[in-house]
Amino acid sequence: MAAHLQDQTKLSNGVGMPWLGLGVWQAKDGEEVVNSVKWALQSGYRSIDTAAVYDNEEGVGQGIKESGVSREEIFLTSKVWNSDQGYESTLQAFETSLKKLDTDYLDLYLIHWAVKDKYKETWRALETLYKEGKVRAIGVCNFQTHHLDDLMADCEIKPMVNQVELHPKLSQKELREYCRENNIQIEAWSPLGQGKLLQLPLLNEMADKYGKTAAQVILRWDLQNGIVTIPKSVHQDRIVQNADVFDFSLTDEEMAAIEGLNEDDRIGPDPDHFDF
Ligand SMILES: NC(=O)c1ccc[n+]([C@@H]2O[C@H](COP(=O)([O-])OP(=O)(O)OC[C@H]3O[C@@H](n4cnc5c(N)ncnc54)[C@H](OP(=O)(O)O)[C@@H]3O)[C@@H](O)[C@H]2O)c1
Questions:
Q1: Looking at 54, 109, 119, 178, which residue is catalytic?
Q2: pLDDT over threshold 90, residue 1
Q3: What distance in Å separates the CA atoms of residue 98 and residue 103, rounded to the nearest whole number?
């Protein structure tokens, strides 16, 4: 169980990945993302989650430089976008991401969505990048159990991470169990439900009990469940607040009560029916 902001989970290949990081989807390239990344790193975060399609990799790279934290201390994730899937195009997209981020390796490279008829070729490119030492770990996003079954039946290197929509209204119990059994680290995107879950009375009652916020209660629930979590904020006070979750513990009853909020309710697209 993570006891500190810089504590890490060990991925199946032995690489350490921080339990908590900063997400930067919808953080605008330029000052907004530069500041968010800088504030996060300066307040102790060591993991940043971006993607080619977020169109802010340059700002992420600049924020890392301006933070004064050395690159080797940081766990940097990016993702190959759907239109770049396929073997050669993924290799190219990876180089473009490196250039924009102004770095010579990534810590984690992910397939952003399971594009039918393409994700296996894309995966082969990720395996190549991994074998060449250009990325320390590889994984997927938005893969359901049937996608993982299909990929793992036909791959050389198993995915180390599956990053999926996961929050109290979509607790992904079955997928979490599957990933645990297969030694794939589950990672929550939109852990705060894009901010839409923060008014839930149950979470606010627990927050009041501990002198915390609903956001902190959710993030603590992730950590106690062994889920890597990457809340996004572009506000310094919230960035700091979201990482201040290591000084309280939810009881087993509270953990179960939050699980009880699940309605299998997605905010984002359905990984089996998306058209982008
Ligand atoms: N792989 C994928 O397909 C995928 C999809 C979606 C997201 N992601 C990743 O997951 C990350 C997180 O998900 P997300 O950005 O969708 O949503 P999220 O982290 O669940 O929520 C972010 C929203 O909550 C607000 N917020 C953050 N902390 C808060 C706090 N303490 N109190 C009140 N409001 C707070 C933010 O506002 P402000 O910024 O204004 O503070 C923002 O509007 C993304 O940034 C991205 O890196 C991946």
A1: 54
A2: no
A3: 5
